[in-house]
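Entry type: protein chain
Record version: 2
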Amino acid sequence: MAGVGEPENVTGLTDYDLPWTEAEANFYRECDRRIMETGIPQVRLLESRRQANGEHTWRETSKIPIRDAAGKVIGILGTMEDVTDRKGAEKMLQQSEARFRELAQREALFNHLANQIRNSLDLDTILETTVHEIRNLLAVDRCNFVWYCPDPQNPYFDLTCEARDLRLPSVIGQYPIEDPDTAYLQALTQFQTVRVDDVTADSLLDPRTQERFIRHGYFSHLTCPVQTRSGKLGILTCVHCGYARPWSDDEVELVQSIATQLAIALDQAELYERSQSAAAQAQAKAQELKQTLKELQQTQTQLIQTEKMSSLGQLVAGVAHEINNPVNFIYGNIAHTSDYTQTLLNVLRLYQQHYPEPIPAIQTEINRVDLDFIVADLPRMIASMKLGADRICQIILSLRNFSRLDEAEKKPVDIHEGIDSTLLILQHRLKANAGYPGIQVTKRYGNLPLVECYAGQLNQVFMNIISNAIDALEEAIKGTQKRCVSEVSPMIQIQTEVVCSDRIAIRISDNGPGIPLKHRKRLFDPFFTTKPVGAGTGLGLSISYQIVVERHGGCLTCRSAPGQGAEFVIEIPTQQK
């Protein structure tokens, strides 16, 4: 076993006589000395020897002490065994274990990557994850993803995603395909993996492609096609720059496996994108229909309210016109009546002055009719008639101002005049009577400029808001009649002010029961009302909102809380654009 043949060939020889090197002989002599001195065996001394053919052989040596009856070491028993085959098997086993560990690690990384790209439905995220993970797995200088765009007129490569060494420049962009008939491109379009270990010596590359790769510094190039169900062709490329490094079969197989998973992920992303696009289109269509319905509903309410206000305006204007004619006749004759009466009284005084003693029949009639009272009261009666005629004229003017049938276009108007006209029309609902305390109206008018607006429409807004305030206060009054009417002090406040250089505000508030939050959210919705059936249409505030916001470019808001009344604020610009 020591390489000297039969046992008799080593009898009487020392370590230095055997075919060992001097260092090996010294080593064995030192082992023998330690055993003789200490009695401790030296077991499994493993060593390697290089043969003349360059191969290594392994041998395993064991040395144990031999003792006499007294326990004294008197010799050494040594064995030597050639374990080259066993060492080779162990080495192969270690290599196999390392290989399996490497494959297991790569499989785990591959599964991790597959899960990452399969769990995302965003195309950019999928591609970014893929190229970065491949670059990390294979330790390449570049990993790119390219779309092949076979435009019949101008085919090109669209490099959309890359992972690279930061020292290398970005190559994202579009690259025209000058020659679509090259063997390299034909292989890709036939969905073949192209493996180029050395760009300078590969027969598949035509001179132009080879020159382009070298110009970009690509010396080892691995390309794997990725086909989607929609027919698009993507390309995964791995590159070593500056030097050539052959691709292993494992690396090629790994990239191909990733390409398969990537194709599935891209299909999922495309399917998701199409479904999202369809959902977006459906949502847009639904939104369009909703908007159309809303506009139709608003148009319907506007038509209803317009017809209603048009009828009311025509009625008001007709009544005002019909009343105006006889009133003008009466009003125009009052002055003449006053003059004639005064003339007659003067004549009567002259008769009394020159005929102080009338005949008995005349005196009797004077006493019967109480001539002195008539003379004193007749001027007062005519003055009262004139005051009433003036009041009727003012009412007619307010009715005409409210209807404004002759003012369809916007023009500068006095806002306060419109509010006063509205209050005059609603005066019958504000007055106190038996069992009804009436509603006090407080006006705090600011110094407003003339406001360019649609006056008739704005008067509709005042009418709707003030009418709602009166309704709320009447409900509150009904709720307190069982206690004491004197406890209720219903009030409406109207305040106007300039809020900035080109906007004014009209605030109409009441001290009624207020509006709950759930109702406040829907105040301006068409046909929404909290009144009983037949008592309200739900159009007033909706129309008012349209008039203020859409027709005048202003805003209409409500501030209220249960038990704290309500305030409506109208803001409009002084000049319409």
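Comment: The domain at 120-247 is CATH 3.30.450.40 (Beta-Lactamase).
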